[in-house]
Amino acid sequence: MAKSKNRTSQEVNAGSMADIAFLLLIFFLVTTTIASDKGIQNLLPPKQDPNVPPPDIKLNERNIFNILVNANDQLLVEGEYVDNTDLLSEDIKDFLLNFGAPDADAIALFNGLPQSLKARANRDPKSSDHPMSGGAVVSIKTNRGTSYEKYLEVLDQVKRAYFEIYAERVGLTSDQYRALTGKNPAEKALIDKGKEGLPLAISIAEPDKIGAN
Amino acid sequence: MGKFKKKTKTSENIPTSALPDIIFMLLFFFMVTTVLREQDILVEQKLPQATQLQKLEKKTLISYLFVGKPKKPALYGTEPRVQANDVLINTKDIIFWVNQEKDKLSEVERDQITISMKADRDVKMGPISDIQFELREADARKLLYASTGKVEK
After folding, report:
1. How far is Cα A59 from Cα A134, in angstroms, rounded to an integer?
2. A72, closest residue in chain B (CA to CA)
3. What is the mean pLDDT of each run of 10 residues along chain A (213 residues)?
4. ipTM
5. A122: helix, coil or strand?
6. Would an 8 Å CB–CB cutoff place B119 in contact with chain A?
7. C-alpha span between A157 and A163 (Å, rounded)
8. Distance (Å) from the C-alpha of residue B9 to the closest C-alpha of chain A?
9. N or C: more exposed end of chain B, with fewer CB within 10 A?
10. Complete DSSP assignment for B128-146
11. How many domains, in total, are found in chain B?
């Protein structure tokens, strides 16, 4: 007769379970690096065929917003020396939305803009004609000795000008607009509506070699 | 005047039997989000700061390039170098590396490859533009300048 023995306690002692779990938790807390694939996106131009000369695109001087950064990280914006980038994005927004000499399409675009963006149109004949393709371009030219940090700071400000315009068109803040993923149709529609007729035209020139390393 | 009589004592112990469950939940959260560092980074990495950050969605399409001064100058010198996978490579080998990375992807995704360039903030534009030139040659045109967030003034 195998009578079951009368054990004193049938339960496993779970009191130290929390301690074990804590140890593991602390281990993962320490080793964790929450993966951050964040940064500034850029699309490089397609590669050049050596047999085909680079296309000769004619742009009027007034349609180009020139930013030069030299080897000492000094900035020359539209021919004028500036010592910080704080006002850069505002200048670029004014430049993009100038509508100096709009054609029929650009006038239609202008009429679709919200009031706050319309107010930026100074219609200055010396600034850009219109922000559509073939119009305003922001050009960044660096030197081989320019620091990467400064270059990114300038690119950041240019992107900021664009994103703030896009966001304003769809009634979001810039942060909300950038967080849109385009995964569902509603978000994609918002992204497209912000960008419509206002392509991101940032030209990054090949750095020149003076003061190079 | 003992009007405010002490209420009858119920058990004053907080039940701790659910504590392990809570801790386990936290544990699982961190286990899932953890990415164990699978490679040693041989170059200095102080990422620049920027405000207009965007997140990349598809992690499988991303390949990483690390650019910076080598951590061991005695071995690799003091000039900025490029690290791909876990070795330092020359700028000329980037095309070869990109093609290797492209082969890992399925055919439909091959042209969507995104390079996340983790460059140190002290690198000059010379090496960066050389890398960009090679990436253009390799037809990997989507580039992400990895950077950390900056608190706006």
Report:
1. 8
2. B124
3. 57 74 82 74 81 71 86 87 85 85 82 82 80 82 88 90 88 84 83 83 79 50
4. 0.75
5. coil
6. yes
7. 10
8. 25
9. N
10. HHHHHHHHHHTT--EEEEE
11. 1
Strand partners, B114: B62, B142
Q: Which residue has the tokens 């003091």?
A: B78
Q: Which amino acid does the sequence have at B103?
A: D
Range of the domain at B87: 49-149
Cβ neighbours of B16 (radius 10 Å): 11
Enter the tokens of residue B57: 């969605």
Cβ–Cβ of B126/A212 closer than 8 Å?
Answer: yes
Domain-located, residue B99: yes
CB–CB of B80/B127 below 8 Å? yes
| Cα–Cα distance for residue pair B110/B101, rounded to 1 Å | 9
* CATH at residue B70: 3.30.420.270
Strands in B81-84's sheet, in edge-to-edge order, are B54-55, A38-43, B142-146, B114-119, B62-68, B81-84, B87-89
List Cα–Cα distances, B36 to A31, A33, B33, in angstroms: 7, 8, 10
Residue B43 counted as domain residue: no
Residue at B34 is within a domain: no
pTM, two decimals, is 0.78
Quick one: tokens of A48? Answer: 């050049």
Q: Do A21 and B23 touch (CB under 8 A)?
A: yes
Q: Which of B25, B52, B55 to mutate to test the interface with A (most CBs of A within 10 A)?
A: B52
Residue B116 belongs to some domain of the structure? yes
CA distance linking residue A142 with residue A177, whole number of Å: 29
Chain B nearest-CA residue for A18? B20
**Nearest chain B residue to A179, by CA:** B54
